[in-house]
Amino acid sequence: xxxxxxxxxxxxxxxxxxxxxxxxDEHPSLLLKGIISEARANDVNILCFVGQQPNHxxxxxxxxxxxxxxxSAKSVDGLIVMSNRLSRFDPESVEQLCEKxxxxxxxxxxxxxxxxxxxxxxxxxxxxxxxxxxxxRHGLHRIAYAMGPEKQLEAGERFQGYRRALKENGIAFDPxxxxxxxxxxELAEETIRVLLDxxxxxxxxxxxxxxxxxxxxxxxxxxxxxxxxEDVAVIGFDDLDVAAACTPPLATVAQxxxxxxxxxxxxxxAKIRGEPVPDLVVLxxxxxxxxxxxxxxxxxxxxxxxxxxxxxxxxxxLAKAWPETILAQVRSLVQSSHVRLPDxxxxxxxxxxxxxxxxxxxxxFLLVLTYLLDEVARQRGKVGEWQGVISxxxxxxxxxxxxxxxxxxxxxLLHQARVLIGESVYQAQVGLEILDRRRMSLxxxxxxxxASTADFxxxxxxxxxxxxxxGIRCGYLTLFEDHDxxxxxxxxxxxxxxxxxxxxxxxxxxxxxxxxxxxxYGQVGDGIMYTVQPIYYRNEYIGLLVLExxxxxxxAYELIRAVTSAxxxxxxxxxxxxxxxxxxxxxxRKATADLIQSKEQAENILNNSPxxxxxxxxxxxxxxxxSTCSEVFGYSADELRGKHPSMLVSGELGSDVIKSVEQxxxxxxxxxxxxxxxxxxxxxxxxxxxxxxVADGGIYRGAVCTIRDISALKDLERMKDALLSTAAHELxxxxxxxxxxxxxxRTRDLTEERRDRYxxxxxxQSTHLGGLVDNLLDVARIQAGRGLExxxxxxxxxxxxxxxxxxxxxxxxxxxxxxxxxxxxxxxxGDPLRLDQVVRNLVSNAVKYSPGGGVVTITAAARDxxxxxxxxDEGIGMTPEQxxxxxxxFYRADQSDSAIGGAGLGLTICKQIVExxxxxxxxxxxxxxxxxxxxxxxxxxxx
Length: 943
Ligand code: ADP
Prior knowledge:
Shape: rod-shaped
Helix content: 40-55%
Radius of gyration: 60 Å
Distance between the termini: 133 Å
Bound molecules: adenosine-5'-diphosphate
């Protein structure tokens, strides 16, 4: 179906889009050769969109194929789809592509697609010829077939040709002779393995689906000691250059690959112009016999059927107007259809040969031939083909040369011509090689430079500097917005042409993605041809690399694309990395500051803690300690590091700690226990150890060990225990007395005097009991932090002192009481009852703790605004150590059973009362000599 097409592109010239895969292979490059030459001839632009074969097995390869969605009426007037390339892994993908672009005129190369004009090759007929040749010419009947890619349509057609040839020649089809293969050299190993090892079939020839597979098959056969064509004849398909160059030269079906490209462009131009175009054109193939099928070179054998000129014809006359049949014969020998030579070259060549052989003017023929060979070499045609032309000239002209001199000159000319051709072939090869080597070293330089910088600007400059050396004079790099190939907008970041270069400072020039190159920068209108390649990295779409299409550098494009992709990606990686590391730096800086702060906080907390805190490592050894720990235990942090915490604990308890720490790792729960702590110097003390695990993500890392000094608490506990026993004892003594005497009073008839005495005991003991209970209540109040109730008034201490002493004198304890300096004492501000309590307590102690009797002296003296009252005894006295604990609650210097009774409360209460009056209380004592308790109370100050 032919659709008239409304052109939308801005340029007056037609722009053809070509959808193809990698350009570096010989097959697509030959197709492109035809496309380029025909586009040039018609002044047509080319945008060659280079992707990958759809469903390519290589990972990420298919990601290149967004490039096939890109062409639109904004950039091209029509499309040539290299279907035979793209259908390799997925024939349906080509139909989908054509469907997607159905608004554009499309020509498909190598595969029929509904609604699209197709230029195909006679694959079936070609293979049929090859197989028939083996049967008929070489008498071979066991002919194996090496298949092409399973799904590829052309490969399928070729296989049909094999079957048709067998059928036409009456040979039964044997499926065991059909082996798997493919279009690649390496796949031949499997072909031969299946035929020789797996199936062990016998065969005398193999026809392969293409040349590369055939060449691989020859190699594989050689490796197994089988020779081509002596043991096995081989024929390929394609007639690539390598077919003629390999050993033995490969017989093959020559397909007009270049012509297919040429025809494709012709058909597309016609379609774009709205001219009628057939749906299907099938281009003929022809068999090229070479050594591998058992034939000799066609230059030697293939031209012998040329018609010589009739005897007696005057060659000079003939040269004036060569018969068309002869000219056509000569012309047909040059197969490189893209090579453009002057139309009359066969006539010129023949005429020059006639004159040179007849007139001894060798230059004329050799000059014409040299001109033609140079032209062919310049246009990258096959110079070798001209051996066939020379053979034809020989066969046409030689029989008509009558004079022996002419024949000799002709022989000489033919010889010189063959030398010239040989030389040209050599020159063309060496020239190409040198060119290639130069290009390769330039390419290497570009790649090396690209790889060695991560700076995007520098990368672009490297492309601009390096690519013109590869014959790529113009180039553009565009980046998709948001890494989205479907984004409406892209940014041009690099452009270079021979006239100007541009590297974007910032984001670049924004333009519609579908234009491929922004109009103001595009050179498409000037008839330059471009490749359009995807820049992508794995799943990330970056942009497009648009480069001038230079046929001689085709192999370089994919490499430049890949390296540019990687370089840009690694550059942006680098930039990302840089900004990432900058971010990271500030995050780390902040975290470090936070850390330092919280570390300081933690250190403050740790070091100001009244408890020793140790961090233990996994094996229970000390890692870090706080300053309290060092102060309490007298070891520096360094001395403790790496040691076992049991060193801080006394005696056997040390091993308990070891056990606790060891069990701790398994136990995980926090544990507490009490130990006797052992500082380096000084007194042992009671301590509570708390071990708490430190876990990080469930992994046990160590423990925090807190050692708290609980000696005060322990003492308190001990004293409470003591109190309980003494209080019980103290309370029981008066109670027993009271109960005993009241029992006697109740049950016995007593004399008045006895009754009074007993009543006096009961009174005395109940008073004592009352005082004891008062003391206990006072202490309880002090302990509860409520303090003692003190009501202030002006108090004269003298009568209090005298009455207390008087009371003791009455008890008749066996002590002498002396009152010294009690006259004219200044009054104090205080609570008379409380002060009485203090004096009574101190006098009571003086009596109690001088069991051997002696003098109790009470002295008062006013000094510095205070009244000092001392109570001195001549009793048992106290050591300084005992004195230091004297005023502590429940402290009793002698706790033995034989000790003098008491609850250890009196002095505590005295101290509280004195201090509650703003005064002080202290003791001076010597064991065995007696003690002096003194308290001072502020006096009333007279103005
Ligand atoms: P207690 O009821 O045990 O006497 P105190 O608080 O009055 O309680 O005294 C505390 C301890 O101080 C006594 O147990 C005793 O060991 C010691 N003490 C008090 N006064 C004297 C003193 N005059 N001479 C010797 N030791 C004394």
